[in-house]
Amino acid sequence: MTDNAGFKPDGEAGSYPAAPPGENPPSYNNSVATLNDFNSKSNLTEKNQFSLGEDPYNPFEHRDPNGASSGGALAHLLKSSLGTGILAMPMAFHNAGLVFGMCMTLIVGFLCTHCVHILVKTSHDICRDAKVTALGFAETAEKVFEYGPKGMRPYSNFAKQFVDIGLMATYYAAACVYIVFIATSFHDVINYDLGINWDVRIYIALTVIPCLLIGQLRNLKWLVPFSMMANVFIVVTFAIVLYYMFDEELVYSNKPLIAKASNIPLFFATVIFAMEGIGVVMPVENSMKKPQHFLGCPGVLNTAMITVVLLYAIIGFFGYVRFGDTVRGSITLNLPEGAWLGDTAKLLMAVAILFTFGLQFYVPNEILWRKISHKFSPEKHNITQILLRTGIILISGGVAAAIPNLEPFISLVGAVFFSLLGIFVPSFVETVYLWPDRLGWCKWKLIKNIFLGVFSILALIAGAVASINEIIDMYSDDD
After folding, report:
1. How many Å apart are CA 254 and CA 376, to the nearest integer?
2. pLDDT of residue 190
């Protein structure tokens, strides 16, 4: 997540009338967007280039001149990527092996970057067609179907609802991961230092209490101080982790180059969870005053993702070499118990993730509230929001208590939610937009997107099955 001040919830760009099936959708000349999930840099579509004497619409000209700079957008992308995902990379390498893990981390990183790229580009192409300044993730899917082949137009609202529901499920599931991570960190430190034997579920229940408070914040500016403190804690934690990773000689000989086949799906699910930030990257681009710098070479996206993928590969590789088969869902949990420096890193990272919970929780609630607020009278909006947020956090705590093991939880979330939203949806949306005659030579873009779609479905099925089996085994061992 990111505390990007330019972020607006997906869907605040306004609503647009759906085009009747079989007719060309209307042009939207007076629509003003308020910076949604993402935009893109792309060329004009051929039909707009040759429209009847009209000047081509350029969404970039209508962006906020006081928006984020390219450097600021790059900082936001880097900061939002350095959280629980990177700390889980050593576990991913444990499930893949040294050589296979390194190669596939780079490949998955490329695929995730490409999927963000094509979705951003498609978003801006459709912005030009519809003559709107910006469209969110869900609105992009909706407009692509609305302006797409006649057979797809009746499904435009379904596409929008599918993405919105997917985003909510993704963020709520990730919030459950956050609760497990925070509780596990405090469990390890307090139980060891005080010599007690409290179950991790007790710490999950205690973690829910501050989450209930921070989850009531409804304005992003109130979350900025928490995010600033979280950034400081994360930097200090990474420094301590690097110190312990290289504080003794690394042994490579007893680490497999390729892990057993049954563990490979868990690797892909974890890496996709760690790298895929489709709901985070887009708001950053949407807040830029010069969005044409987001794509391209080097571009903000490429610079950020190259840096992120290299960091993930390095932390994953050397973290696994250092801790071997004992590596856990977060490398901070492998730091020495009872050592003040290791305990400091665990607690600082737990507090940093707690402070980030508010932002993680903010996004899906804004989407949900936009969908249901009209069902309540305005004078009851405040109490309704309080009860709604409280109920969702309590449910999240219950899910976390049901699956208090970080490793399979991360894999399950990555396999199910991030595979769909991060890989399948972008490839499908691009295909619909380019159909039928703009798919490249021999329809290579169609072939490429079919490959991405198949890969995402396989990652979803295999990763989910492997994760669920691990969870079942965990409960069997408890019995």
Report:
1. 61
2. 93
- Read off φ and ψ for residue 335, nearest 5 degrees: -70, 150
Say how many domains are in the chain.
1
Give per-residue pLDDT as tens, 319-342. Answer: 999 988 888 888 888 888 888 999
Lowest mean pLDDT among 130-134, 156-160, 207-211, 344-348: 130-134
DSSP-assigned states of every residue in 181-246:
HHHHHHHHHHHHHHT----HHHHHHHHHHHHHHHTT---HHHHHHHHHHHHHHHHHHHHHHHHHHT
Cα–Cα nearest to 71, from 308, 373, 358, 289: 289
Residue 392 inside a domain? The answer is yes
In a domain, 2, yes or no: no
What token pair was written down for 30? 């007076």
Placement of tokens 């501050």 in the chain: 210
CATH of the domain at 447: 1.20.1740.10
Ranges of H-type helices in 333-415: 340-372, 381-402, 406-413
| Closest-CA residue to 108 (of 280, 274, 263, 301) | 274
148 contacts 18 by C-beta, under 8 angstroms: no
Residue 394 is assigned to a structural domain of this protein: yes
Partner residues linked to 288 by β-bridges: 68
Provide the whole-model pTM: 0.77
pLDDT, tens digit, for every residue of 35-91? 333 333 333 344 444 444 456 777 767 666 777 677 777 776 776 666 667 888 999
- CA–CA distance from 362 to each of 3, 8, 240, 244 (Å)? 11, 10, 30, 34
Q: In this predicted structure, which of 11-20, 77-86, 199-208, 456-465 has the lowest mean pLDDT?
A: 11-20
d(CA 419, CA 271): 10
| Residues facing 38 on adjacent strands | 135
CA dist 422 and 417 (Å) reads: 8
Question: What gap in Å lies between CA 8 and CA 286, rounded to an integer?
Answer: 9
Mean pLDDT for 463-470 is: 85
- Say if residue 8's pLDDT is above 90: no
Enclosing domain of residue 392: 65-478
Rg (CA), the chain: 23
| pLDDT in the model for residue 32 | 37
Only one residue has tokens 């609305």, namely: 146
Asked if residue 386 is part of any domain, the answer here is yes
CB burial of 289-308 (b: ≥16 within 10 Å; e: otherwise) equals: bbbbbbbeeebbbebbbeeb
